[in-house]
Amino acid sequence: MSMMQRATEALNRTLPDRDVDPLTTARRVVGQPVSRVDGPAKVTGGAAFTADVDLPGMAFASLVPSRIARGRIRRIDVTRAAAAPGVIGVVTHDNAPRMDTPVLMTLTAKGCAFIDVAPLQDDVVRWNGQAVAVVVAESQECADAAAHLVHVEYDADAARTSFGDLQSEAVFPADVLGEPPEITRGDVDGALAGAAFVVDEVYSTPQHHHMAIELHATVARWTPEGKLHVWDSTQALVRTRHSLAHAMGLPEEDVTVTCRAVGGGFGNKTVWDHQLLCVAAARVTGRPVRLALRRKDAFRMTGGRAPSRQRVALGADAAGRLRALVHDSVTGIVHENSPEQVSVPARHLYAADTYRIGQKKVVLDVVPNASMRAPGDSIGSFALESAIDELASRVGLDPIELRRRNEPAVDPTDGTRFSKRHLIEAYRRGAERFGWQERNRVPGGQRDGRWLVGHGTASAFYPYIRMPGGKVRIRITADGRAIVSAAANDMGMGTETVQVQQAAERLGLPIDRVGFEFGDTTLPESPIAAGSAQTASLVITVAAAAEELKKVLLKRVPRRSALYGLKPNDVVYRDGGLRHAGDPSRAATFEELVGEAEYVEAVGSSPMLPLEFMKYSMHGYGAHFCEVRVDAVTGETRVSRWVACIDAGRIINPKTAASQIRGAVIMGVGSALMEEGLVDRRTGRTVNASAAEYHVPVHADVCDIDVIFLDLPDPLTPMGVHGVGEIGIVGVAAAVANAVYNATGVRVRDLPITLDKIFTGSGAS
Amino acid sequence: MREFTYTKAADAAEAVRLAAAGARYLGGGTNLVDLMREEIERPTALVDVSGLAQGITEHPDGSVEIGAATRNTAVAAHPRIRRDYPVLARAIVSGASGQIRNAATVGGNLLQRTRCPYFYDVAARCNKREPGSGCDARQGFHRTHAVLATSAHCIATHPSDMCVALVALDAQVHILGPAGARVVAVADLYRDPGETPHLETVLGPAELITAVRLPRAVDGAVSTYRKVRDRTSYAFALVSVAAVLRVVDATVADVRIALGGVASRPWRARVAERELLGAPAEPDTFKRAAEAEFRSARPLPDNAFKVSLAPRVVADVLKGLSG
Q1: Cβ contacts of residue A557 below 8 Å, gap of 6+?
Q2: Which end of chain B has fewer CB atoms surrounding its CB within 10 Å, N or C?
Q3: In the predicted model, what is the mean pLDDT of residues A592-599?
């Protein structure tokens, strides 16, 4: 037994279970397919995004990117740029204000950066595309034109740019999200050698980019008193405030960050150089400054998903039971940045007698990788779930039956109990909807005109995460409405709608009497929207605030009231007020309780450490089913049918949640069939840095996506919910690869599955 | 700001006069304006010709004349084009997006520049953008690049779909220049890259494309356009095929084939056509002829797949037209 397992067992004995949220089964508002409250503004162009912010006296910035991957700036001449029409100033490492090193996302609860060096603090070039100067001008056109006039000479050093070439230099990182980089049980190599059926293959995935529709933008304004207000396209308002305060040496209360709408985050709307550069430019020029990245800047100045190379070896007995599971993986990384956690799915999905699951890193001189929708899990599952499908073929089993035979009773690597796990039920329901029994059973055996038709399936998986440390304020106004406030983030996934719903359920109000105020750091601190954790984190915090509010309201109860003398535990929120839990006749409305005051409010804090993770194995699961059509002449592959059956706890809003799953499936289809960031090994430069050349699915690539939620609550989570933002992408690429194999008999193990790999067999078998 | 003058030409003669004084022609702006934003093109004067020569004229001899400023969408939607030249209508709608086709002109489409990413990145070496600087694509990423008539100096492709159909249709380009008017076959409009890949067409200084003329459609022929690409829409061709075919008594009586995505120009497959003319209209014949076209191919590691893909697509398209 490993040290970790012993520690886990000790915890299991000593940690108390969390009480089940009484609203886990509530259905008045939660569970209803409410349309997005921000929908009309978004579709009519009324919603203001950061690049729409227009301040009096605002100037515009344009960045000068480096052209080498590693080295030093020998000379930088800004004379021509500074003299160009409309130019206000040029900031380089010669005149940039001193800025402190940003705190990395993984290091502290307030970290938000993936680059651990502040920009323009020295003459060192760390990757190709790093900004070496900022030009500030009276118009964007003036700034862009003058940026071309900045003359830079470099002393280039040899750079590590090719992930593929550097595999032999892979080393273990210190940890993978706090877990050991490699875990083992038993003699896995011996078990593999003695297995009745073996699959032992290498899978690879390229650099990916987030490609949010909204490009990153920042507007910075310094007040005469030296305070800073920043409008930023961010999914982490509070952490961005911390980063900027830390960088500029300001107390956090002197910095305000505002962001009401984000056009897609996916893990990439965090702190990069451009926010610091914008703040520095505003400081140097004394003007409010807007810095909006161009598409090519987003490719070269913000990170994407790291490339990976993954060996998966599976050994099974005659009945298909796993005797050995090996996942030896390598990802690209920059210095101490967080490694793409590709080995996580293999740690939790299958029971195997022996295993070795681990990952190494190759350090590269490229823009640091960021979190990208289900980091690690997405591409890790491509390798694992492709290999499982290959094993099913070899054993001669339905891949769902193979999974059923390897379904673990407890978490397969840390031994904890599952808080809930309905993976096999997800397969059953999804298979029924998809018509899995009528699938093509002979690879290459089904033809429809020019198309070869194939079917594939794969598991979705994503950890349940709850972020500690948030606060929520609930204000009840004199007219009996509730305004719930938190510095929460909406990147377009429906935060406002879902928060209104869950708060309305909690407070016993209809949704049109609840408002949700978010998007500004002057509101109570709220965690980053990441790890699909924001909803659960806010639900538990709203519950805490509602409990605090009960106390405040009960203190205001007059003697004559039926509620007089009751304690918070005696009352519940019901019908727009408070009511005795056992006696419906003893009630008071919010209007009565607020009385003559303008409003009454209370602030609640989330319970600090989410200890439930340590005691239980808490994950979401799901089953993807897809049909692909492969042109028999060209190898062009199109996805024609999709069913996703998702086990992500209780669903607050099936409409917005299904949109999250659909978006994730589309993004996963992109990774399966077309997405590939091309990094030129000679220069370390991303070559296809445009929306025309870096392909993501267009409308014509997207079929109907049928989403089923099991909607079974997790008894250990607030309202029984899990996150739904990321789970939908996990398993998608494998499902497509499995379907392509089923259609053609060609197994492609190197993403993306482009027609040349099917057609000529390069990258395939 | 990089300043330039803008003049809207009243007629072709004025446009040529302004161009002779140094102005660049501006059509729908869907390519030139992009290139100006990237500082790949740096004109100091633009003369807008998008208001000139719009419209489609049907001549008594059966030919059809398309004004150079006619929008791509208008060409593809024209009933006569759809009836007699379906290959052209299909080629146009398979390109770009609805919005771009609404803005893009026929003349501009003919003269659009390559989408080689190294051409588009001013930090890269590109003989087309900066003659003599070198070609970063040859040793770099070139999966989408040319395999026919390439040179050591350039392996870029011509990105147009429309032009591939025009070449298959034996269209003529009407040109007006300072020295007067002339007519050039679309197939002869382009140059192979050789040692001067920055010289892309045979147009002289200030020469303006005023119209494209489609000869009378071949009686009894059928035509189509097939584009093979990495996603269903809004992607340039890996390989595309425009074909016009007339079969009489199971024999190829007339055939014109043009290819996109394989050369620096819309490629007329003369070798394949020669092999096919008078030959039995059968899949094997189609395949052998298409393969013959690619005997002169000089692929690189990442684009070698085109050498086997293109003949398969040609054969499949001809099979579809003959069936």
Answers
A1: A563, A564, A565, A566, A588, A593
A2: C
A3: 95
Do residue B121 and residue A687 have CB atoms under 8 angstroms apart?
Answer: yes
Which of A582, A609, A636 lies at the terminal end of a domain, its last residue?
A: A609
Are residues A418 and A434 both part of a single domain? yes
Spatial CA neighbour of A687 closest among B145, B309, B29:
B145
A342 and A255 assigned to the same domain: no
- Are residues A118 and A175 located together in one domain of the fold? no
Task: Inspect the interface and report whether the beta carbons of A674 and B230 lie closer than 8 Å.
Answer: yes
pTM for the full predicted model: 0.97
| Interface membership of A162 toward B (CB under 8 Å) | no
Residue A765 has a pLDDT of 36
Distance CA A356, CA A325 (A): 6
Q: Does A199 touch chain B (CB under 8 A)?
A: no
Tell me the chain A residues in contact with residue B316 when contact means C-beta distances shorter than 8 Å.
633
B308, A759: Cβ pair inside 8 Å? yes
Contact A662, A707 (CB under 8 A): yes
Domain assignment of residue A422, given as a range: 169-208+305-465+613-759
Residue A116: the pLDDT is 87
Query: How confident is the model over B14-48, as pLDDT tens digits?
Result: 999 999 999 999 999 999 999 999 999 999 999 99
Say if the Cβ atoms of A145 and B136 lie within 8 Å: no
Contacts of B238 in chain A (CB under 8 A): 755
State whether ipTM is beyond 0.85.
yes
Residue A123 lies in a domain: yes
CA angle A183, A426, A615 (to 5 degrees): 40
Q: Which amino acid is at B140?
A: G
pLDDT at A177: 87
A300 chain-B contacts, CB cut-off 8 A: none
**pLDDT 10s digits, B54-83:** 899 999 999 999 999 999 999 999 999 999
> How many independent structural domains does chain A possess?
3
> CA B231 to CA B220: how far, in whole Å?
33
Domains and CATH numbers, chain B: 5-49 (3.30.43.10), 222-322 (3.30.390.50)
Mean pLDDT computed over every residue of chain A: 95
Task: Quote the DSSP letter at residue A719.
Answer: G
Q: Is A490 within 8 Å of A261 (Cβ atoms)?
A: yes
Same domain assignment for residues A473 and A455: no
Domain termination residue (choose one: A285, A301, A317): A301
Stretch B206-234: mean pLDDT, rounded?
Answer: 97
Is residue A198 domain-shared with residue A294, that is, in the same domain?
no
